[in-house]
Amino acid sequence: MARIVIIGAGFSGQTAALYLRKKLGDEHQVTMINPWPRFTYIPSLVWVGIGRMEPDKPMFELEPVYDKMGIEFKMAWAREIHPDEQYVLTEDKHGKQEKVDYDYLINATGPHLNFEGTPGLGPDHGTSQSICNIHHAKMARDAYLESVKRMEKGEKQKILVGTGHGTATCQGAALEYITNIHNDLVKRGLRNKAQIMWLSNEPKLGDLGVGGVSAKKHGYIMQSESFMKSLFAEQEIYYQIQSSVQKVEKDKVHWENLQGEQGEIEYDFAMLIPQFQGARLKYVDRDGNDITAKLTNPGGFMLVDGIYEKKWEDLKSSDWPATYQSPLYKNMFAAGIAFAPPGPISQPFVNKNGVQITATPPRTGMAAGITGRVVAENIIDMINGKEPSHHERMTEMPGACIASINKSVWNGSAASILMYPVAKDYERYPDYGRDLSTNHMEIGLAGAWVKRILHTMFIYKMKGNPGWSLIPE
Amino acid sequence: MQRITDMKPTARTLFIRQCKIIQLIRFIVLNLKILKTALFPPHHK
Predict the structure, then answer these.
(1) Min Cα separation B10/chain A (Å)
(2) What is the pLDDT of residue A309?
(3) Which residues make Cβ contacts (< 8 Å) with residue A303, sequence separation at least 6?
(4) Average pLDDT over residues A179-187
(5) What is the value of pTM for the model shown?
(6) Which of A194, B20, B22, B45 gets the highest tally of CB atoms within 10 A of its CB?
């Protein structure tokens, strides 16, 4: 009998739990540690954040799903991992601590939203908003609707959306939010009352943390930069890129750009994605020593089987993690945002003042689901006495980004961006780093339908309903 | 902050993006493309 413990019931953790339960017999125990009682389908929070979706729609209760599937559920925070003694120290909401023993561990903790990385950033300071979790999305909705009320009274509003740190990621979510705000204001007849602005750390518009996407279109090879410029021109969105937010005050944001210039942008409503770091977990050895620095990178992401500390320009496909297994503790794996990438996909920059301005790699959605499946299959291999045989690097992984522009099923829209692979591989694709016959970009109502279907299908899948494994990650 | 006005989609493009018949076809094509990419990525080792 093997005891498998998963920390985090997000996309990757939930996918791993489903596969483990499906493929392992009842003699093996699967335990999920998660501080919250519900699963949240994060991609739909852009709609919650503008009041176009009820907050309970992208969520479901985990306990009934786990009862049905035979997964043990511990609603608590994971505080410490003791890899030598093979247990996780948890703490529940009453402060009660518990040791949860494991034979195999999956770290699928998702990000720590590092608002502290930018002075004044985040809803706790009463300045900018975030849509990175349901609580923040509801706060963003309330603040946005407050701005809408002011516009209804005739006031002009400055709306700022983008990234709130020089090394933030998830530009796609911010892009969805800004375009949905545009359409929401058009619907309300208030678009002329708002100046909508995009502020990001991307080196080029449309970089999205993946170094941009190239695709064949109308007999040309089109860049996502042109694609995004066209969208911003259509929606009359002002933009500023190559910028790191340095400080946020109640009504203005201080930025510094690649040239080392500094400036301010005034706003009435701002939604800025914070820097993502690894979850605040402590790793402790058998002597009680803190070994977190040995097992994680400086950002707190767990080191796995990638080749680290190479320069961006020297990174090869084979340097990206394949099995997501810890090199120090072979029974530990990381999936989704929790694993440390060997470097950024997008070109990194440091300005003359030493400020790092780099769009860091996204590992959400499809990548999170795929890594969740891969680690589950590798643990099954190990339980069966074999070496981990399942490999899927981000340089072998497809990516589909369906960025909502307008939620409506009648006259909605979405930007559909397909790419292969997610992390560029110039050895296989010397010109653009990706397969141009797979890459695809289009905007239209069809994308809005796909986005709605993805919402329904993924919630269906994550509940472990019949046929869930037929739905690809 | 800058704003560009070039590269705006034409009326024809905007019509295509909202034409229900064309978009139904695009929907089928897009789904097939996503499924093909997800299930059978190119040159997958």
Answers:
(1) 10
(2) 86
(3) A295, A296, A297, A326, A327, A328, A340
(4) 96
(5) 0.95
(6) A194
Longest Cα separation, chain B: 45
Average pLDDT on A290-312 reads 95
Summarize pLDDT for A423-440 with one digit per residue, the tens: 999 999 999 999 999 999
Cβ distance B45 to A396 less than 8 Å, yes or no, reads yes
Query: A396 vs B30: CB contact, 8 Å cut-off?
Result: no
pLDDT at residue A25 in the model: 87
Residues in chain B closer than 8 A to A443 (CB atoms): 17
Residue A69 pLDDT > 80? yes
A-to-B residue pairs, Cβ atoms closer than 8 angstroms = 90
What local confidence, expressed as pLDDT, does residue B43 receive?
Answer: 66
Residues of A with Cβ-Cβ distance to B34 under 8 angstroms: 400, 418, 450
Nearest residue of B to residue A200, measured between CA atoms: B1
State the sign of the Cα–Cα–Cα–Cα dihedral A197, A203, A204, A207: negative
Cβ contact (<8 Å) for B3 and A450?
no
Contact indicator for A204, A239 with CB cutoff of 8 Å: no
ipTM of the complex: 0.94
Residue of B nearest to A231 (CA): B8
Residue A216 touches chain B, beta carbons under 8 Å: no
CATH numbers and ranges of domains, chain A: 3-113+276-350+361-383 (3.50.50.60)
Angstrom CA distances, A205 to A420, B4, B9, stand at 20, 12, 17
What is the percent of chain A where pLDDT is above 90? 95
Q: Which residues are CB-contacts of A233 (< 8 A; sequence separation ≥ 6)?
A: B3, B4, B5, B6, B7, B8
CA distance A378 to A375: 5
Out of B4, B24, B27, closest to residue A233 by CB: B4
Q: What is the dihedral sign for C-alpha A129, A193, A226, A198?
A: negative
CA-CA distances (angstroms) from residue A357 to A343, A424, B6?
14, 19, 27
